[in-house]
Amino acid sequence: EVVVPVGLPDEGAFDWLDAFLAAHPKYNELSDRMVVDWAEKSGMRRQGGGTTNKASRDKPEFSFGLKEVDDFSIRRVLQAFAPLQSRHFVVMELKENLIKESRARSLSKFGDGFKKVAHVVVGEPSPAFKKKTQEQTLKAKQAASDVAFRAKKAEEKRKKMIEKKQKEAEKARKKAEKVKAKALKQAQEALKKKIEEKKKAAEKKEGDEEAKEEEKEEKKEEPEEDEEEEEEEE
């Protein structure tokens, strides 16, 4: 079976589609948002910058940076192969489904083996649908709030970790400075001691040399005294 929803923009057509797919899991959605969802689940990421239409469910901007995806080649391949598969499909194209000629052209791709059904989703929704939509809206808001809360907690944790690392780094820096200052002081004291030892050694050497000189002088003077004594005896 191939189902064609007929609805107005911003009037809950995609909400109806989500409810329909939840109630009929064997049906396969054919739409631009389905292609984007497939691409993102495959690991692709849409690129930022420029004017984007990422939030649109009918015509989301592809902008994955891959030519085969961004030029709608993937979508055309899916549209070409879908009618060859023995499956149930929902063709979700708001503008094309609203126009009779476009709708007929889209359905003509599916052969006689498919039952073709149009669902008009215009007008006042049922109380059950309203309730379901409100629950989904509240659930989405709660999920967004939870994400924001977790992000806030993660940011607080990240800041605490940064502060902790900064304190540890500051503590390590001060410790390194103390070790460096202590080593410098020890080196200065060792140098001072070495200089003093050299100075004392030099003074001692100088004193020894002076003593030797005095001893030499004394030895030179001793013979003269002996000669004077001999002269006196004569």
UniProtKB/TrEMBL annotation:
<protein>
    <submittedName>
        <fullName>Uncharacterized protein</fullName>
    </submittedName>
</protein>
<feature type="compositionally biased region" description="Basic residues">
    <location>
        <begin position="172"/>
        <end position="183"/>
    </location>
</feature>
<feature type="compositionally biased region" description="Acidic residues">
    <location>
        <begin position="223"/>
        <end position="234"/>
    </location>
</feature>
<feature type="region of interest" description="Disordered">
    <location>
        <begin position="197"/>
        <end position="234"/>
    </location>
</feature>
<feature type="compositionally biased region" description="Basic and acidic residues">
    <location>
        <begin position="152"/>
        <end position="171"/>
    </location>
</feature>
<feature type="compositionally biased region" description="Basic and acidic residues">
    <location>
        <begin position="197"/>
        <end position="222"/>
    </location>
</feature>
<feature type="region of interest" description="Disordered">
    <location>
        <begin position="141"/>
        <end position="185"/>
    </location>
</feature>
